[in-house]
Automatic annotation (TrEMBL):
GO cellular component entries: cytosol
Gene Ontology molecular functions: hypoxanthine phosphoribosyltransferase activity; magnesium ion binding
Domain Phosphoribosyltransferase: 21-171
EC number assigned by the record: 2.4.2.8
Any GO BP: GMP salvage
Reaction(s) catalysed by this chain's protein: IMP + diphosphate = hypoxanthine + 5-phospho-alpha-D-ribose 1-diphosphate; GMP + diphosphate = guanine + 5-phospho-alpha-D-ribose 1-diphosphate
Keywords: Glycosyltransferase, Transferase
Alphabetized Gene3D superfamilies for the sequence: 3.40.50.2020
Species: Thiothrix fructosivorans
Enzyme class: transferase
Protein name per Swiss-Prot or TrEMBL: Hypoxanthine-guanine phosphoribosyltransferase
Amino acid sequence: MDEHMITSEEAMRVMAEADLLHSAEDVAAMLDRMAVEITATLGDKTPLVLCVMTGGVIVTGHLLTRLNFPLEQDYLHATRYRGATSGSKTITWLHKPEAALVGRHVLLVDDILDEGYTLREVARWCREQGAASVHIAVLADKQHDRRVEGIWCDFPAIELVDRYVFGFGMDYKEYWRNANGIYAVKGL
Ligand SMILES: O=P(O)(O)OC[C@H]1O[C@H](OP(=O)(O)OP(=O)(O)O)[C@H](O)[C@@H]1O
């Protein structure tokens, strides 16, 4: 068993003890607002929306149904936590988009901006590929002073306290990405 894995019984206990920070209704309202802001900025730019897998999959799906303008969709997979609750400083690319980025207005969509290593590297790579612009949208923008230099967020849906969170795409040791809301792990 992977050192970071927990049993489904432990996963049940984590959920039972967790604090609900934002309900599904809160999240929906914040995504509505985010979609309006993205539309104002990118609605006439036919952006290429890139989902940052795995965590970005749920927010990307919910967001896309709120964007009523022409866009293209692709995905990438970059990871640095790999099931742990603290990450390495370097990211591992597991998949790069098929779509050409040259001259495109790219919108990166991810679940959480935490220390920022992941999105900083992904954004740097997009620019290196020739993107005309790179915007970043995240469901959760965690508030603390450990952010790396050179990262930004154009469209944060929710500002979060500095706790380890799960739900709506975010995992606790690979569980509960499916939780319909944002929860904080007890004690973390
Ligand atoms: O701002 P950072 O401190 O870099 O952390 C945020 C990143 O960490 C998580 O991905 P993870 O590495 O867990 O990959 P996964 O989505 O495939 O689980 C999350 O989905 C973000 O991409």
